[in-house]
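SAMPLE LOG
Freezer: B-3
Tube label: C17
Construct: single chain, 155 aa
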Amino acid sequence: LHGVQAGVYRTPAHHLHTGPGLRNVSLQVSFDPKTLDLVALVPDGQGEAIAQFELPHLCDIRPHEDAYVEAWLRRWVDGEAGDEVMTLEASCLQQLKALSDERPEVCPLLRHLLGRFEAAIAQWLVQWPCAEPPREGLQELSAGAGARPSAEETE
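STRUCTURE (predicted):
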């Protein structure tokens, strides 16, 4: 068993070098107009540790059956992203969660961040009508708006 030596658990080295921890990590979800997807940037320390130590062991069979997941894996496992900051994408969230749930021992950081990302997306969607950028022809809504117009009124 990895990390266990003579009956004593030792934290794997890559968990020690990931920064201040994940308890206070809040992922900021935003809409990426280039990919037409909801995304969140992974903090540098965690992203580097995930890419170096966890992702190579996440998926044994490549290419992955889901095109979005395969594209994400190519960026972060195969190094196509270069020096970019790792991003999580909503289009492959469920498949990545399924992969990380199959082998949680190889990707605890990724699994935790995917859970945080899912919660952040839910929070973003709750606030979405107030967060949508203004567009011509639509009524503006403020965060403190009481009654919201119905779909019929908006049209």
